[in-house]
Amino acid sequence: MTKNIKNTDGLYDSFISPSFLEYDMDFEFLEWYSLEGSERISELSRQLRTFLNYKSSIISLRFSRSQKEGNIFKEDLLVKYRGEFFLVYSRYSILLKSIGVDEETIAEKIRILMEKVKIQPNDLEINQLKEIKYLGEELWKNIHILSGFEFHSHSRLLHMAIKIACILCTVEGVFFSLFSDFYGELKWSYLQLEKELSALLCLNENQQFKTKKKKRQVRILE
């Protein structure tokens, strides 16, 4: 994925400038900046692995001939994490709606709120932004955990996780503008997965309908 390096020339120049490195405080700042950058890169790497896990799940659903049942322990864990996932998303969704967000205006509304807070700091709006960011991080964690399960019997949950990942990519692209290209491409990739999964679900439903219809016809003949 391409990396957004627009408007960063000044940032890089400041790091190679001799005057910037003259004081101990500057070394402390560099150490902090390096740590923050390392953590962000680790997070981006995890999000990419999560996407690949979901891609693998869809491939498995497409080419598996039978619906495999997981063991009881894994099923119980999946139900547990699914409950936590929907609970966090419910809070997240309510919070987004409280600032006037709908599916088409997520990035615009959050960007406006961030600019407003910069000009006129307001505790309520600052806390809203902090909560959106915090709940987004929790959702990413849940989506990553869920990506490690098999979805043969939970394709609808898989579909929901992918749709929410698209929303998170939009929001993260605003919060971390330096990585907006990464999140833009990741969102596009998730949208392609969603289309692929939607088509697969429709195909499976049609096949199940035809199978049930054949069974009914056989019973009538008997």
Give an account of the 3D structure:
With 222 residues, the protein is mainly α. The protein has a domain at 72-221. Helices cover 79% and strands 0% of the residues. It has 7 helices and no strands. It has helices at 9-16, 24-63, 72-98, 106-119, 123-146, 155-175, 180-221. Helix 2 (24-63) runs parallel beside helix 7 (180-221) and helix 3 runs antiparallel to helix 5 (123-146). The longest helix is centred in the last third of the chain and has 42 residues, at 180-221. The N and C termini lie far apart (60 Å).
Write out key terms for the chains shown:
single chain; 7 helices; mainly alpha; elongated
Structural class: mainly alpha
Instruction: Sketch the major β-sheet.
Output: none
State the separation between the terminal residues, measured CA to CA: 60 Å
Number of helices: 7
Gyration radius from CA atoms, angstroms: 23 Å
Give, in order, the helices and strands. HHHHHHH
Helical residues, percent? over 70%
**What gross morphology would you assign?**
elongated
What are the segments in which pLDDT stays under 50 over at least 5 consecutive residues?
Answer: 1-25, 27-34
Mean pLDDT: 77
Give me the count of strands: 0
Question: What's the helix and strand layout?
Answer:
Blueprint: H1 9-16, H2 24-63, H3 72-98, H4 106-119, H5 123-146, H6 155-175, H7 180-221
Helix pairs in contact: 2-5, 2-7, 3-5, 4-6, 5-6, 6-7
